[in-house]
Amino acid sequence: MRIAVYGAGGVGGYFGGRLALAGSDVHLIDRGAHLQALREHGLRVQSVKGDFKVDTRNDDKDYSRIRCPQCRWQPDKHSRWTCSPGCGHSWNTFETRGLCPDCGKKWFQTACLHCSAWSPHEDWYEERKN
Ligand SMILES: [Zn+2]
Ligand SMILES: [Zn+2]
Fold this sequence. Notes:
Blueprint: E1 2-6, H1 10-21, E2 25-29, H2 32-41, E3 43-45, E4 52-54, E5 81-82, E6 90-91, E7 109-111, E8 118-120
Parallel strand pairs: 1-2
Antiparallel strand pairs: 3-4, 5-6, 7-8
């Protein structure tokens, strides 16, 4: 079973955590400071039924909505970009939304590993406002 919980605070975090403990494939979707905390520390839930912790740090990112705007190629978690010109660090740019984790350089353009075309990083995300 694959479950997406939107908003990992309070209720969402509690039920998402419970489901994860029960063996479901739970994806907690949150943003901002909360997401940062989830990435760094995992999910901690304190409740009247007992406290528990769920490790969300290795949660696989959903790459199904990320595509090259030019050729529709989809990266996956093993895809790697190199910070060049820059510090030469190699990482998955979609894990950090274009930010080099080593030198902090923000890559506003992302090269496609398939067709080599450069496109604005934000254009790779298919989630569009209606
Ligand atoms: Zn760099
Ligand atoms: Zn492409």
